[in-house]
Design goal:
The structure is a single chain. This protein has about 400 residues and is an alpha+beta fold. It folds into three domains: about 10-115, no CATH class; about 130-320, Jelly Rolls (Sandwich), CATH 2.60.120.1440; about 330-400, 3-Layer(bab) Sandwich (Phage tail protein beta-alpha-beta fold). Helices cover about 25% and strands about 30% of the residues. It has helices at about 10-15, 15-25, 25-40, 45-60, 65-85, 90-95, 95-105, 110, 320-325, 340-350, 355-360, 375-380; strands spanning about 140-145, 150, 155-160, 165-170, 170-175, 190-195, 200-205, 210-215, 215-220, 230-240, 250-255, 255-260, 265-270, 275-285, 285-290, 295-300, 305-310, 310-315, 330-335, 350-355, 365-370, 385-390, 395-400. The strands form three sheets. The chain has an 18-stranded mixed beta sheet that branches. Strand 17 and strand 18 (about 310-315) form a beta hairpin. The protein starts with 8 loop residues before the first helix and ends with a strand.
Length: about 400
């Protein structure tokens, strides 16, 4: 049966299905709520504010950034201007008491007057909510905002957008449907690229900025950037070269970090299965902001790395070229545990590597050519240590040579 229900802010906050879709997003729920917004059954303003309320209730320690305050204030102010009827403002009185208490605790209602209508940015407000598909295969996958999908069996792919959001994949133009609407007209229109283990992708965004996406990574982005900022969401690792634009900072968001740049080159690593999230700056300048209950901002200068492990933050001097060599098919490591090296090789080649604990604890310094055969790469470690490598049924094993 077709769902013709119209939802306001309160309806959303009392709807179990909506709450579940925010706390545990999946492709089916994301598609449903997007369809309802496009059909006018729920406004973008109500959807965004309700989504934040649910996320904040789910994580009571969450704090709103200044941008988020400004976004919601701009949305509420625009909504009030449209309605003009003070009686309709009673919607604020219908919000459940628990939500009102939470909003007061984070200073939203008390502090709204401090933010003017231009303080926020709605270009990428929902970019972090774009769900990963329920199943991810072995192919590079491009999912357009129109829900069209392209799967590529090649080991690598190159994606290029023009200024209107029209994409070419390996020099073949895609009919994504996204090119008909600019980002400012459809602020919730996002594409995503999913790269499995053993593959990698390069991309040119609509503004000319370039991205190299490492294996086992995902990036979410608008086909055309908005007028106030250029935001993407990253899971995994990417190296970026940003086109200068002082009026529109380029922001890379991860689960724990925000990296803000104007025109620069840097690497962001944010894998879920690694304890550390890192940012390495090659040139220019970036500001790295941690998320969570105690946000902290750090500015990096070239050849420095910011790292976040849990709540522990640090900055150290590095040779930046060593950290971005993967995009050119080279892996450089210095005094690194072999277990860490092998985990990265598993991800890059898309294979399974088993090893004894004594093998994983060994430390190596060197350089690997990732375009070489994986067995040849692994056997190279036996030249520097008493270990052997063998392959059986596609599984590689490293063991001490007694």
């Amino acid at each position: 049966m077709e769902d013709n229900t119209k939802y306001n802010l309160v309806d959303l906050l009392e709807d179990d299905a909506f709450i579940a879709s925010v706390n545990h997003p999946d492709l089916a729920n994301s598609t449903r709520w997007k369809s309802l917004r496009e059909a006018g059954q729920v406004t973008a303003d109500d959807y965004r504010l309700a989504s934040w309320c649910v996320r904040a209730l789910h994580s009571p320690s969450a704090k709103m950034s200044g941008d988020e305050h400004g976004n919601i204030w701009a949305n509420i102010q625009a909504d009030i201007s449209r309605r003009r009827d003070r009686r309709k403002m009673r919607i604020l009185l219908w919000i459940p008491a628990a939500v009102i208490g939470l909003l007061l605790s984070v200073g939203l209602i008390v502090s709204l007057e401090r933010y003017g209508p231009d303080a926020g940015n709605a270009d990428a407000l929902s970019i972090e909510d774009v769900a990963l598909p329920a199943t991810v295969g072995d192919d590079i996958e491009i999912i357009f905002s129109s829900n069209n999908k392209v799967r590529l069996k090649d080991k690598s792919a190159h994606i290029q957008y023009d200024g209107k959001g029209v994409a070419e994949v390996n020099s073949v133009q895609m009919a994504s449907g996204a090119e008909s609407s600019l980002a400012d007209d459809k602020p919730d229109a996002f594409n995503q690229v999913i790269v499995p283990k053993g593959k990698y992708t390069s991309m040119v965004f609509s503004d000319g900025s370039r991205l190299w996406l490492n294996a086992a990574s995902r990036v979410v982005y608008p086909p055309v950037f908005g007028s106030r900022e250029r935001s993407i969401y990253l899971e995994g690792e990417a190296y970026l070269e940003i086109e200068p634009d002082r009026m529109r900072p380029f922001i890379v968001k991860t689960k724990q970090l925000e990296v803000r740049a104007l025109g620069t080159a840097f690497d962001v690593s944010a894998y879920d299965d690694e304890a550390a999230q890192t940012v390495v700056l090659l040139s220019g300048r970036v500001a790295v902001r941690t998320k969570g209950s105690k946000p902290h901002e750090t500015e990096l200068s070239p050849n420095h790395m910011f790292s976040l492990v849990g709540e522990d933050k640090g900055v150290c001097r590095v040779k930046a070229e060593d950290y971005i060599s993967w995009k050119d098919g080279t892996y450089i490591y210095k005094d690194e545990k072999l277990s860490v090296i092998l985990e990265r090789l598993e991800r890059y080649y898309g294979l399974t590597i088993c090893y004894e604990p004594e093998v994983g604890a060994m430390r190596f310094t060197g350089k690997l050519h990732l375009k070489s055969d994986p067995l040849e790469v692994l056997q190279g470690f036996s030249n520097a240590a008493p270990i052997q490598c063998r392959e059986e049924d596609g599984i590689f094993s490293l063991y001490i040579n007694h």
